[in-house]
Amino acid sequence: MSSNGKAHSGLIGQPVDRVDGVAKVTGAARYAAEFRPQGLAYGVVAQSTIPKGKIQSVDTSAAEKVPGVIAIFTCKNPPLKLTTSAQKEAAKSLSLLQNDAVNYAGQVIGLVVAESLESAQHSASLLKFNYQTAPFETNFARRLKSAEVPADHVEYKRGDVDQALKGAAVKVDQIYSTPTESHNPLEPFATVAQWNGGALTLYETTQGVFQSRRKIAEILGVAPDTVRVISHYLGGGFGCKLALWSHAPLTAMAARKLGRPVKVVLDRQQMYGPVGFRPATNQHIVLGANRAGDLVALRHEGINESAFHQFVESVTEASKMLYACPNVHTNQMIVSLDIGQPTWMRAPGHAPGSFALESALDELAYALTVDPLELRLRNYAQVDSETGLPWSSNSLRECYRIGAERFGWSKRNHAPRSMRDGKLLVGWGMATALHSCWRNLASARVELRADGTALVQSGCHDIGTGTYTIMTQIAAEKLSLPMERVTFELGDTNLPEAPLAGGSTTAGSVGNAVAQACTAALDKLIATAVVDRQSPLSGAKIDDIVAVNGELRIKGSAGKSESYQSLLSRTATGKLQATVQTKFGDEAKNYSMSTFGAQFAEVKIDPDLGVIQVSRFGGTYGAGRILNARTARSQMIGGITFGIGMALMEQTLIDHNLGRIINADFAEYHIPVNSDVANLDVFFVDEQDPHVNSIGVKGIGELGITGVAAAIANAVYHATGKRVRDLPITLDKILV
Ligand code: MOS
Q1: Which of 41, 75, 494, 619 is 20 to 30 A from 328, comparing alpha carbons?
Q2: In angstroms, how far is the first alpha carbon of the chain from the final one?
Q3: 419 CA from centroid of ligand 1 (Å)
Q4: Which of the residues are catalytic?
């Protein structure tokens, strides 16, 4: 559906087409790797083949002889030596060729720059690193016993779990584990660095141009305002593009050293290891309940793999607050391994955490012989049970009810192995979806022009989620203009500052800024009109003026109106600008903000082969105001699909004898394809949130994956009677 002919007063929420759709399918949309400044040279990174040790020497003799090679950078010949402690601090989790240390296999240890990609690739393949190897450990399971308390450790306790467990009628005490997972955005990392005198322009694959600028400037030791970072389009990020990884500053350093633009694009194999991954987790959950099914105790201890810089995968967040339970204890530990740096991946914490918690609740439901949905309703938290704060909005009970109805949950027979479709075992499982609703400050600028168009700008991101479209919708509605007359620009540090595209915050936080900037622009226009003698609105009261269909009108006074164009054509510049930086009040002190949902899975399993098909999946969500019914549905479908991969396929595998990732491509790292994703039903309940921000938007990018793996694991149990507590649920685990 196009927005053509639609009343723009009702634009927000409409399933309008992506405004960047044509640019994307015609190739007009330029991604970072597609920028080719004059004189561009091509860089290829070299990676360590050992997991731990030192680089003793580098033999570049063969590599240098490749025609077209311009420079070979290694720790023996870095493009820039970091000197200040601020520079070193900024670079501390990166590999910028500053020393001879190797901390994991796949670490960036060299950069070859050449006149062509082929020359650079060939030369890099001929580089010989002579290592002094050191003992290493990459095996998370083997090191669990040596888990340590992280520096930013938070242990949480309320009530007395041990005491409550003593009196509990029913208990569940189990360990759940999730593997290392890779983000696998379709677009690999790419950096094009171009210096112009002392000014650097970076075309970059990033979920945060402002953060990239800050980090690059710190590392290079230059002023942030000499660096411009541009990221107009992103082919997915899922969290790996929130951080700046080694290749990006190295590209900028090489470009400066060589005095010409340099481009580095990682290949698919290089996307596994040096640019982040979701760390493996091991989660111990103990639940206690009374006979009626009320939770009396919940303990959740999470351990995750970490690397040379500590990373905590916050799996225990939901356990503190999602269910009403008087006695709760959570704790987080880490195991340091000789692996690359873990990072955030779609719904960090919540995705693996919900697998454990929601699986354990299913086990409790079976221990009590109570319906799993009934158990969750029984333990519904009227208020945030960690803080005691009321919810800013919470439609979870409605999600359960509507989701169950749409799925047909009432027809479920509770006993395992009780439902069949011919010879196939049928299983139905469910889980709660939960994601934090964070808010960020953001800024936006609106320019109204005498030609009747509006330019709206904010340095945020469209990581494939539809930001261009939803911001255009918000602006068009708020400005009372057709979408075709509104252009939204993003992804450039020359624009007003916006936060990282992370934590599902862009729609709410930037949308709030855009809405407020539009209101501010119209307020300015109205103020201009009432003092403009030539305007029919001259002398009118400001409060009496409304904006309708590109005109200012006096309420109730028929005929008294003037178009924005006409008003603006009499201004000196022919345009008017308003910039807004958002502020928040005490809302977050008074309300707990989260998004919720109910996930329902149907699996069909071949009892002889163990092959699992997710034949149906239903997700019903409450996430505040939905800005575009189509892009929002796409987000949830994407989240569920991610969850299907998490449940059944995804795992980054390391050969622990070599310490190297062995499935670093799409042939060996399995993600769902169309035939793995059958029938997805997505529904949003109508939820008003008056507290979260001026537009009532809570954000949805990560909610959809939460609970999915548990719903599927619970369905697998229902189908087979086999409880699989370690993801992914591959067929061998069903057959044994
Ligand atoms: Mo998300 S892991 O905050 O991109």
Answers
A1: 619
A2: 50
A3: 38
A4: 702
Which residues have C-beta within 8 Å of that of residue 149, sequence separation ≥ 6?
333
Q: Is the CB of 350 under 6 A from ligand 1?
A: no
CA 30 to ligand 1 center in whole angstroms: 23
Strand-pair partners of 459 = 497
List phi, psi (to 5°) of 446: -125, 135
Write out the two tokens for 574.
């022919």
Query: For residue range 102-138, what is the model confidence (pLDDT) as tens digits?
Result: 999 999 999 999 999 999 999 999 999 999 999 999 9
Ligand 1 touching residue 682 (CB < 6 A) = no
Smallest CA separation from ligand 1 atom 4, residue: 239
pLDDT in tens, 699-720: 999 999 999 999 999 999 999 9
Query: 349 CB less than 6 Å from ligand 1?
Result: no
**CATH fold group of domain 21-30+440-583:** Aldehyde Oxidoreductase; domain 4 (3.30.365)
User: Is the CB of 227 inside a 6 Å radius of any atom of ligand 1?
Assistant: no
Same fold, 32-135+183-271 and 369-437+591-735: yes
CA gap 614, 605 in Å, rounded: 9
- Determine the distance separating the centroid of ligand 1 and the alpha carbon of 592, expressed in angstroms: 21
Number of residues that make up the chain: 736
CATH number of 369-437+591-735: 3.30.365.10
Are the C-beta atoms of 649 and 670 separated by less than 8 Å? yes
Tokens of 397: 């009970």
Q: Round to whole Å and give the CA distance between 717 and 283.
A: 19
How far is Cα 338 from Cα 659, in angstroms, rounded to an integer?
8
- Centroid of ligand 1 to alpha carbon of 348 (angstroms): 7
Domain ranges of the chain: 21-30+440-583, 32-135+183-271, 369-437+591-735
Q: What is the pLDDT of residues 133-161, one digit of tens each?
A: 999 999 999 999 999 999 988 899 999 99
What is the CATH class of 32-135+183-271? alpha beta
